[in-house]
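Researcher: I'm preparing a figure for a lab meeting and need a structural model of a single chain. I don't have an experimental structure, so a prediction will have to do for now. The sequence is pasted below. Please return the structure as tokens so I can convert it later.
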Amino acid sequence: MQLDFTEKLILPNISNLHQLSVYEENGGYQAIRKAFTMQPDAVTNEVKQSNLRGRGGACFPTGLKWTFMPKSTTADKQTEKPKYLCCNADESEPGTFKDRQIIEFNPHLLIEGILCAAYAMGIKSTYIYIRGEYYKWYKILQNAVEEAYAKNYIGEKIFGTEFSTDIVVHRGAGAYICGEESALMNSVEGKRGYPRVKPPFPAAFGLWGCPTTINNVETLCNVPHIINRGWEWFSKIGSPKHPGTILLGVSGHVNKPGVYEFPTGILLSDLIYEVCGGIPGNKKIKAVIPGGSSTMWIRGEEIDGVRMDAESLKTVGTSIGTGGVIVMDEDTDVIKVLSRIAHFYHHESCGQCTPCREGTGWMEKILHNFESSEATLEDIDLLLDVANNIEGNTICALGDAAAWPVQSVIKKFRGEFERRVRKSPKVSSSIKPPHLVFAHATP
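Model: Understood. Here is the structure written out token by token.
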């Protein structure tokens, strides 16, 4: 294993770092002080040049996203629309659990990142949207925000400057779809968490019709380091096209599961065998989901040479997503795992789009038939057809997130489905969903 960068930027090994006094003793709130000596555009350019990419799943360049925020919403200052920042802390995808670690151990880094972003884009109000069930993390975050308000690090004329901004911690009701940016905004507005049709995009028409930027927790936590140490320093960490450190939440069949911080580009095999201590019982790896349950699966024999960055994972047909790595050993029943994932997406579909509302249910039903040995060989292609008809045909990405695991598992483990059918003691006729049109369905 060759790791030439051991510094932890997001989760350093410092006790009680969640306390403001400890955070400041270790250099906290110096980045925002430095940012105030710069022009707002210079702060945005620093982030843009660093090539920081979003850590919420889409990997979109953060600085570029900030440039979409209009400098002024009208020529008349009297009718100027407010601008908003939303921090997406609604972390609820199976296999993903790293943002909660940040909130628990380093919440002031997130607050400082928000302040830098708000200053750069001229934003006066930020909502941190956190899943309602995460009460423990909500309390920690709320306490940190109150600490910062008490020292005037948030609020009116912070640090004695003319810049004022507020931060509100907003608890959601607990729906996976509210992690999607437009559904999140509807939820903040007090509406049902339905995704919106785009365009218009949030930078033009966001919260209450005003310009809004949405960033993930981990993404914003990189900003203070970029401001403090410069874009050139940051851009040299990890993979050139996907620089910085990244939090990788590893779960499943590994000896030492947990959240680990490494430069992007760490070999997936090093992460599993060196960092996480390998597979219990020295078993072989059957499959890996590299970026949370919505990402494409890869087979165990495919992981050699694959690095944990967007470009490398793309070469094996998958993506880094949220960095939630799920490892499955050789004894894993992949159909059973896929069935559980399908149940999750069926349950969490908001029901707004027919392909997602109906299709996720049918995928779960067909997979259940494979589990209970009631499926036929034709059901393999039927399952794939349902997934193909969901992908790309919904307002938001939940439909894709439900379809991609199914597509990849059939592609990588088709033999598992065939063996399950051939060993079936009670093969029935193929089932056909009535509400979808299948391009290649068996007549």
